[in-house]
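does this look right to u?? nicotinamide-adenine-dinucleotide version
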Amino acid sequence: MLRPPLGGQGGLGRPHLISVIGAGTMGNGIAHVFAQTGFKVNLIDVNNVQLEKAMASIGKNLDRQIAKTLLTEEQKKSALENITTYNEVAIGVSAANLVIEAATENIDLKLDIFRQLDEFAPAGCILATNTSSISITKIAAVTKRPELVIGMHFMNPVPVMKLVEIINGYATDARVTDDIVALSKQLGKVPCVVNDYPGFIANRILMPMINEAIYSLYEGVAELEEIDTVMKLGMAHPMGPLQLADFIGLDVCLSILKVLQDGFGNPKYAPCPLLANMVMAGKLGVKSGEGFYNYTLGSKDLVVSGRFKKS
Ligand code: NAD
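got this back:
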């Protein structure tokens, strides 16, 4: 059972209990990796259906690990037993040493959640956010403990992806950063520490590439499959940028590009009008069934969406 202290010298506490806010795509993955590593986890969502779905997904994902002989049935059982679900933030965080917020990417919602966390989580509890793009400094500023607020940006799918981008807000205490770095390593992840500027590192570099791929399609420089194939085979990317945009969600890509555009005041980050149109039309990628590709046909191979088929 792994119950190491949070952090090195001057550590700010021991993570006996991790509370995860939001049981969506990321929240269930984060709960999964902590529970599998032996931590007790409170998984909290305002939506009971999401909590049920999250527990079912975690069970299925643990089964996948068993099928690959990465895990035993006994370890699956113990991981599931480590997770307790709650539908109220106030109760679910009242004994936590670390809270990781992974609720919907909406600034007002996150500020409201952090006000609640500051009120209900014990003094000394570190408050982390999995936000893709919202300023850690801004989130920290609504709490009375900005030195204990930090970005802990996991990648999707969490049980598989090794990177954790750790983001220091303006006021984050260096001991908190050390603690979160150490904790990420205990989860078997590779932490990279960055500072709090728009898009951090991952999305500051990824989103302009995706936007440029969409512009290339919009301007007719090449067909959709050619753009993705050039980047896959030419740059050894596991998937092309247009397929990746579908996987991330086109609405998410649009909102991150807007954060970059607003944050830097530089028109080079302006989202491509085609991306904006697709989001307005409800074509959000995998989660809506269609984006650059069509996911509704049950085909194992990627199928280009009708809108982008070669004539
Ligand atoms: P999601 O829509 O799948 O899940 C969000 C969950 O938050 C939902 O279950 C919703 O019911 C819950 N929620 C909303 N308000 C809440 C509240 N007040 N209290 C508790 N729960 C609440 O979203 P997601 O894709 O899991 O993204 C979560 C966070 O992770 C976002 O900040 C996102 O930017 C970030 N992120 C997403 C990805 C990705 O690929 N999806 C990758 C990295 C980071």
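The domain at 202-298 is CATH 1.10.1040.10 (N-(1-d-carboxylethyl)-l-norvaline Dehydrogenase; domain 2). idk if thats expected tbh
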